Automatic annotation (TrEMBL), chain A:
Belongs to the CPA3 antiporters (TC 2.A.63) subunit D family. This is Multisubunit sodium/proton antiporter MrpD subunit. GO terms for biological process: ATP synthesis coupled electron transport. It is a multi-pass membrane protein.
From TrEMBL, chain B:
It comes from Quadrisphaera granulorum. Its main location: membrane. InterPro entries: CPA3_antiporter_subunitC, NUOK/Mnh_C1-like. Signal peptide: none annotated. This is Multicomponent Na+:H+ antiporter subunit C. Residues 126-141 have a biased composition (Low complexity). Keywords: Cell membrane, Membrane, Transmembrane, Transmembrane helix. It comes from the Bacteria. It is a multi-pass membrane protein. Residues 108-150 are annotated as: Disordered. Belongs to the CPA3 antiporters (TC 2.A.63) subunit C family.
Length: 531, 150
């Protein structure tokens, strides 16, 4: 199965090249994108299955010895995140294909969209599979530069202004990350995640904690943890619906993934109570400040952006506690959150298409005109708030249980903050739902738009867009059905990240053999094992 | 590893200058700040490579060695810094394109100050489309070569 590892990066990169060449053939571009992303999804599923059955696997590109070449590693955490992200990119691509095929898209499709989107997908794959810090940085840069282009697509005044904030903040976070890599290398002489755990735990404590904080600061900025989250609600709402959906689903979660790795693999051996306390404070502040911001919003997209920030806090909750159960719950929550935020942003795109606005002051009565959209919004919205049968509830419950097991004061603070945030999310989201779908349009600022006209308007939403959005909603709702196995898998993923010797021996040890000609034998063996 | 004082001071100076420039509201200064701070960080990667002056990989006898501790310069940070320089270059080019685009849109105002994003309540989603149509230069630029460059 190791031969499949580079495919999740190679396929989108080749696809990007092909779609770039096919710039003047929009139909061919769409086919290439959809086929490539389907291939990535299938490959990611195969990788997850093989990581779950045979343990972590790695491959060193170009058959260099381990430690010299660039290594890609997949364990259950990487595999799970990879599969989730590829489902999201595929669905969003289908959605944007549906949006573009009608001809009256919100903006004329730009030929650069498909190549950039595929490059973004490649960057996400690199980041999830990176076996060394610098490759993680490269993955981040690939996905960030793609996101700069996607966010400012069309170059309108609002997008360029919002994009400028986003780009400068992202560059600052990348510079911090690069600084972190520089000082980590100066202190340890390696950037490989296989060698770092041992060498970092050998450093003086003050130096190790300093390195940890530089990296956490850089990743916290990317993940939009509270004091560093101001950029997110200002930039995401200006992007087009599919772009906002894929950003909301993936970009911050790549930062969260990097925090997982930093806290477990890299600095699992040097954890200090001060850093843990800082993480608890950040998690609580992210949850509460984010959701209070969401309550104050009068625009659906901004409201969702604030809930996005707020729920990053739940993942930090799990990271701060650090036990296998807590990390497993955080991984589960990350998977749930990627899908649910993507679904919500896609449905808001449908609302915008149907009603022409996302402002809660001007929306209203859409439930009568477009009951299907109302249902599509309601399901992931209740899921986000954590209403019992849905996966959001399962994730929150797992986190709270891990917190109760921990039993310390900070764990109880986290539990209280988590419950309050959940309730406030329910308030924010039901207020948004009522304002969008229930209240009559007559009381709104747009009295000349009759319900009949609104209904006629709603029919203009292309069925392919609705189908793609419905697909994500179905996936996120069906997480409930597989919650048990998925939670077990997430716990396994957490166990994988905490099993530092296992991880390092996969990255370092396994490939010493491939250096002296074992590459063909190794892949042949694996091929025979899993025909 | 003991870096030279010259490199250390240069890194500190560049990063401090860059951060100072980044706090400005003028786009030109922000772009310069990114460049200067980026170069400072790139220099940090070189400083992490240890003492300068020896060839990487080859030891004094001309033998290929990966023993970076004693006989040869460390080649890895040089590879890293090359990648980082290329990335800084590309990102700066993009920033310049955005700054240019901003000046095209804001055109007549004659400065490059980043304005406050719209306060909440006046959501951008509803306010932007009519506003954009009225902006000078926007309509003309859609579909123009500059547009494709994005």
């Amino acid at each position: 199965m190791r031969v499949l590892l580079p495919l999740v990066v190679l396929l989108p990169v080749l696809g990007a090249a092909l779609t770039l060449v096919l710039g003047s053939h929009p139909v061919a571009q769409r086919w290439v994108s959809v086929v490539v992303l389907s291939g990535v999804t299938a490959t990611a599923a195969a990788l997850l299955v093989s990581a779950a059955s045979d343990g972590p696997q790695s491959v060193v590109l170009g058959a260099w010895p381990a430690g010299v070449g660039i290594s890609l590693v997949v364990d259950r955490l990487s595999g799970l995140m990879l599969l989730t992200s590829s489902i999201v990119t595929l669905s969003v691509m289908l959605y944007s294909v549906g949006q573009g095929s009608t001809g009256d898209g919100e903006r004329t499709p730009v030929s650069i969209y498909h190549p950039t989107f595929l490059t973004l997908s490649a960057g996400v794959s690199i980041a999830f599979l990176a076996g060394d810090l610098f490759n993680l940085y490269v993955g981040f840069e690939v996905l960030l530069v793609s996101s700069y282009v996607l966010l400012t697509l069309g170059g309108t005044a609002a997008r360029v202004r919002a994009g400028m904030t986003y780009v400068v903040v992202s560059i600052v976070s990348s510079l911090l990350f690069l600084t972190g890599i520089g000082v980590v290398y100066a202190a340890t002489g390696t950037v490989s995640m296989a060698d770092l755990p041992g060498r970092l735990s050998g450093l003086p404590l003050a130096v190790a904690v300093g390195l940890q904080l530089v990296l956490l600061l850089a990743f916290g900025l990317k993940a939009a943890a509270f004091p560093l989250s101001g950029w997110l609600p200002d930039s995401y709402p200006t992007a087009s619906a599919p772009v906002a959906a894929v950003f909301a689903g993936l970009l911050t979660k790549v930062g969260v993934y990097a925090i997982f790795r930093t806290q477990t693999v890299l600095f699992g051996g040097v954890s200090t109570p001060e850093v843990t306390t800082a993480l608890v404070v950040v998690a609580v502040a992210t949850m509460l400040v984010g959701i209070l911001g969401a309550i104050a919003q009068n625009d659906l997209k901004r409201l969702l952006s604030f809930t996005l920030v707020s729920h990053i806090g739940y993942m930090l909750f799990g990271v701060a506690l650090g036990s296998t159960a807590a990390l497993g719950a955080a991984v589960f929550y990350a998977v749930h959150h990627i899908l649910v935020q993507t679904a919500l942003f896609l449905v808001v795109g449908l609302v915008e298409r149907a009603a022409g606005t996302t402002s809660l002051r001007r929306l209203g009565g859409l439930g009568g005109a477009a009951p299907g959209i109302a249902l599509l919004f309601l399901l992931p919205a209740l899921n986000l708030a954590g209403i019992p049968p849905f996966s959001g509830f399962v994730g929150k419950l797992a986190l709270l249980r891990a917190g109760a097991d921990d039993g310390s004061t900070s764990a109880w603070v986290l539990i209280v903050a988590g419950v309050i945030t959940s309730l406030l999310t329910l308030y924010a989201i039901s207020r948004a739902w009522a304002a969008t779908f229930w209240s009559g349009r007559a009381t709104r600022q747009d009295p000349e738009v009759s319900p009949e006209a609104a209904a006629a308007h709603a029919h203009r939403v292309p069925p392919a867009m609705v189908a793609a959005a419905a697909g994500v909603v179905v996936v996120v709702t069906s997480l409930t059905l597989v919650a048990g196995p998925l939670l077990a898998l997430a716990d396994g993923a957490a166990a994988d990240t905490l099993d530092v010797p296992g991880y390092t021996s996969t990255v370092g040890g396994l490939d010493i053999a491939t250096a002296d000609g074992g590459a063909e034998n190794g892949s042949a063996e694996n091929g025979a094992k899993t025909p | 590893m003991s870096p030279t004082i010259v490199l250390t001071v240069a890194i500190g100076g560049l990063v401090a200058t860059g951060v100072y420039l980044l706090t400005s509201r003028h786009l030109t200064r922000v772009v310069l700040g990114v460049l200067v701070a980026g170069n400072g960080v790139n220099l940090l990667l070189i400083a992490a490579a240890g003492p300068a002056g020896r060839a990487p990989i080859l030891d004094p006898d001309g033998e290929i060695t990966l023993d970076t501790a004693s006989t040869s310069s460390d080649p890895l940070p040089q590879a890293l810094v090359l990648t980082a320089i290329v990335i800084t270059f590309a990102v700066t080019a993009f920033l310049l394109a955005m700054a240019y685009r901003t000046s095209r849109i804001e055109g007549t105002k004659g400065d490059d100050v980043v304005r406050d994003t719209s306060p909440q309540g006046r959501s951008r989603g509803e306010a932007a489309p009519p506003g954009e149509a009225a902006e000078p230069g926007t309509a003309a630029a859609v579909g123009s070569p500059q547009e494709k460059a994005f």
